């Protein structure tokens, strides 16, 4: 039986930190679904379709990665694709408390789906989509933070 994992996030936009987690997860699991959260409480810069397209572009070399979106409970989505695992990235100790709450709730909802935490590479431990958007908004250098396709999409958003 194939090992299938779900790697959820808002990915607004996807950064090298996200890619680090996705690539490492793709080495461990047979299939990884990178799923964009469609969170109505957030006001994203990129639409869900734009985020799916950007993620698809920057992960096209990873043959076992699929990109999708979902609304609702993550464990329900995981079950729908026969995933037995959720991959979550951790940047710092401060992320752990929030992630522990989410993981505990997911376990209550479906005890058969395990959560695996991957510590991000130290060079990305400060990186967040919010920081990238802020720097891009004011024309700062982001080429070391996001892939070229994402940098181009950000420049287009802020030049319009």
From TrEMBL:
GO terms for molecular function: ATP binding; pantetheine-phosphate adenylyltransferase activity. It catalyses: (R)-4'-phosphopantetheine + ATP + H(+) = 3'-dephospho-CoA + diphosphate. One of its GO terms (cellular component) is cytoplasm. Signal peptide: none annotated. Keywords: ATP-binding, Coenzyme A biosynthesis, Cytoplasm, Magnesium, Nucleotide-binding, Nucleotidyltransferase, Transferase. Its EC number is 2.7.7.3. Pathway: Cofactor biosynthesis; coenzyme A biosynthesis; CoA from (R)-pantothenate: step 4/5. Substrate binds at residues 10, 42, 74, 88. The record marks 18 as: Transition state stabilizer. The keyword ATP-binding applies. ATP binds at residues 10-11, 18, 89-91, 99, 124-130. Its cofactor is Mg(2+). Residues 6-134 form the Cytidyltransferase-like domain. Its main location: cytoplasm. It is found in: Cytoplasm. GO terms for biological process: coenzyme A biosynthetic process. Homohexamer. Reversibly transfers an adenylyl group from ATP to 4'-phosphopantetheine, yielding dephospho-CoA (dPCoA) and pyrophosphate. Belongs to the bacterial CoaD family. This is Phosphopantetheine adenylyltransferase. It comes from Neobacillus piezotolerans.
């Amino acid at each position: 039986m194939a090992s299938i994992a779900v790697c959820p996030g808002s990915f607004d936009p996807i950064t090298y930190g996200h890619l680090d987690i996705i690539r490492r997860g793709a080495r461990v699991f047979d299939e990884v679904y990178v799923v964009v959260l469609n969170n109505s409480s957030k006001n994203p810069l990129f639409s869900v379709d734009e985020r799916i397209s950007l993620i698809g572009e920057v992960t096209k070399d990873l043959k076992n990665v699929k990109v999708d979106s979902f609304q609702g409970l993550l464990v329900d989505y995981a079950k729908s694709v026969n995933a037995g695992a959720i991959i979550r990235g951790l940047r710092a100790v401060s992320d752990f408390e929030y992630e522990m709450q989410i993981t505990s709730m997911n376990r209550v909802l479906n005890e058969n789906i395990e959560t695996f935490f991957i510590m991000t590479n130290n060079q990305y431990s400060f990186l967040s989509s919010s920081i990238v958007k802020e720097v891009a908004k004011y024309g700062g250098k982001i080429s070391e933070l996001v892939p070229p396709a994402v940098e181009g999409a950000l420049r287009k958003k802020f030049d319009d």
